[in-house]
Design goal:
By secondary structure, this protein is an alpha+beta fold. Helices cover 46% and strands 24% of the residues.
């Protein structure tokens, strides 16, 4: 089930006596304007554009394991902001397995490509856990951009950031060996998903060896061999898809020395 409501819905519930309502809107009590105004991308939009987009923005709550959109979808397109939770962007391989291309987490925007080129979605998007999104309908974004064309530049900046990440990935793929690229990926995941547990850092994101192989452009067997070696060296530990970093300095040294 997906819950959705606008700023007006939230305000209506906020000013309704508590004993008269117990809806999900009361439980979350989220302020769309608060989240948007504290986001670096949105706060850099022209002042006249911000209320036009925020006014009809919709807050959506997805439960774990729900699809947000499928590859090829062209209906109900929107510009999305991740308030909380983690989204897996993936494609289905020829063998029928979902292959992860990226993870989106709190503070990230997505959906701008389909708004700019008016073409269907390029990938599937699934929730890994409970996810809350702020969604701005495509028609509203287009109407606002027609009135204020500078908005197109700001949308392009989201895509530019994504392209830069892709170039970084290509640079790593051409200049680092597989072990160094895996170390680089794990170190990069710490900022978003790392949880300090004593002297160790657990990456609180389930990743199969097949997914890691796909994301690094190699095979599951190669990833398995590296992980087994690192476990013997007490660099990491891996149980049920969750990786725990036990020696971060050594992984960083491995990443930088390749």
């Amino acid at each position: 089930m997906v819950y959705s409501f606008t700023v007006l819905d939230i305000l209506n519930d906020y000013f309704t006596p508590f004993h008269k309502t117990k809806s999900v809107k009361n439980i979350t009590l989220m302020n769309i304007n608060h989240y948007l105004n504290n986001d670096p991308w949105f706060s850099q939009l022209p002042a006249i554009v911000q209320p036009l987009l925020a006014g009809d923005a919709v807050l959506k709550v997805y439960q774990k394991g729900q699809m947000i959109h499928a590859i090829g979808d062209n209906d109900d397109a929107a510009l999305h902001f991740v308030v909380s939770g983690t989204i897996r962007v993936c494609n289905v391989s020829a063998s029928g397995h979902a292959m992860t291309l990226a993870h989106l987490s709190s503070g990230e925007w997505f959906g701008e490509i389909s708004i700019i080129d008016d073409n269907p979605r390029t990938h599937d998007a699934w929730t890994i856990n409970k996810v809350t999104l702020i969604s701005i309908p495509r028609n509203l974004v287009i109407q606002t951009a027609q009135l204020h064309p500078i908005l197109y530049k700001h949308l392009a900046l989201i895509t530019c950031e994504r392209i830069r990440r892709a170039f970084d990935w290509i640079d790593d793929a051409t200049s680092l060996n597989t072990s160094a690229r895996l170390a680089s990926m794990l170190i990069g995941l710490i900022d978003t998903y790392g949880k300090q547990i004593g002297d160790d850092i657990k990456i609180d994101l389930r990743l199969s060896q097949e997914e890691l192989g796909f994301m690094l452009g190699t095979t599951r067997q190669t990833i398995n061999k590296i992980i087994q070696s690192w476990q013997k060296q007490h660099l990491i530990d891996m149980h049920y898809g969750f990786i725990t970093i036990k020696d971060k300095p050594q992984l960083m040294a491995m990443m930088n020395s390749s």
